[in-house]
Amino acid sequence: MFTRFRRKRIHPVLRNLLQETHLSVNDFMYPLFARSGEGIKDEVASMPGVYQMSIDEIIKECGTLKDLGIKAIILFGIPDVKDSVGSDAMCEHGIMAETVRAVKAAHPDMFVVTDLCFCEYTDHGHCGVLDPVLETVDNDITLDNLARQAVVHAKAGVDMIAPSGMMDGMIQAIRKGLDSAGFVNLPVMSYSTKFASAYYGPFRDVAESSPSFGDRRSYQMNPANRTEAIAESVADEQEGADILMVKPALAYMDIIRDVKNNTSMPLAVYNVSGEYSMLKMAAKAGVIDYDKVMMETLLGFKRAGADIIITYHAKEAAEILGR
Questions:
Q1: Which one of the listed residues 8, 71, 176, 194 is annotated catalytic?
Q2: Active-site residue, from 247, 260, 280, 315
Q3: H, E, C per residue of 155-208
Q4: 310 - beta bridge partners?
Q5: pTM
C-alpha cells in the first residue's frame, strides 16, 4: 500500500493549514547605506532599487519601511574621508554615529542595527589595521578598534551591534568593551560564519569597499569548508554572541541548517547583493517570475533555519505579504 501524500494537497485550505514554514514581515531586516550631504538618493547600477542615501533621505525611507511593517534596519556608512585605520568608524561625529542619532531621534520605534567593520572606512578596503609583513589584517590590533567602534555606536543609541569583520575573538573583545562602558544589555549579532564569497560583488559598489589589493580569504571563510563553518559559529556563541549569522545565504543552505542544529542561539542569514542582483537581472531578461522566485527564495532561508533574514528584497516581500 503506497502513501497518498496528495490527499493533503488537493484542497487549498487544508494545504495552507498544513504548511510547515511561514514567512512574515517580522522576519526581515533591511540594509541602508548612509553618506553625508542632503537630498542624496543615488541608485546603484548593479543593484536596482538600492541606494546610497543622505541621512535625511534615510529618515524618509524609515517612514516608508514602517508603513510596510518593517521595523528593523541595518546601517552601513560611507565616509567622506578614509584612512589606513578607518578613523571615521571610531569617531562620535562619524557618518555612522550621526546616522544612528538622527534615525533614533526621528523614529525611536525603529530597531537600528549597525554593521561593525572597517572595510568601508579604510583607504585600503580591508577590514582592519594592516599587518605589513603578512599583508593581511592584524587581528589583535583590530580587536581593540572594534571595541572602540562598538562603544561609539552604543553611545549614539544603536539597538544592536553586528560585527562583520571575521576577526578571531571579536565577540569577546566587543562584549568586554560594551560591558566596561555600561552597555551590558546591548545585544551583539555576529557575522559568525561569513564566507569569502564572490556573491558580494555588487555590495562593494554601493558600500565603496573593494580591497585595493588582494582579497579577504585570509580572514573570511573558505566556501569549501563545512566543519570549520560550524566551529566558527559555535565559538562566537561561546564568546557571548546573542545572535549568529550565516553569510551569504543562497549557496549555503546546508550551513544554515548545520549551524541551527549545532547552536542554541537565534540565527540570521544575509541574503547578499549578488543573490539579489541575480534575481533582478533574471527578471529583466524575462527568464523568471520575479515575485514568485523571490518569495520562494526567502521561504527557503526560513525553512533552512533562519530566524532573521537580512535582505534587499524586504520591501517588495512585505508588499506581497500584505496583500
A1: 194
A2: 247
A3: HHCCCEEEECCCCCCHHHHHHHHHHHCCCCCCCEECCCEEECCHHHHHHHHHCC
A4: 29, 270
A5: 0.95
| Burial (Cβ within 10 Å: 0-12, 13-18, ≥19) of residue 39 | exposed
> pLDDT tens across 264-288, in order?
999 999 999 999 999 999 999 999 9
Is 247 among the residues known to form the active site? yes
Dist. CA 298–CA 17, nearest whole Å = 20
Phi, psi for 91 (deg, rounded to 5): -105, 135
- For residue range 130-157, list pLDDT tens digits in order: 887 777 889 999 999 999 999 999 999 9
**How far, in Å, are 104, 124, 183, 284, 308 from residue 72 at the CA level?**
12, 30, 20, 29, 10
* Cα separation, 87 vs 141, whole angstroms: 14
Instruction: Compute the residue count for the chain.
Output: 323
By three-state DSSP, how is residue 50 classified? strand
Q: How far apart, in whole angstroms, are the C-alpha atoms of residue 251 and residue 264?
A: 23
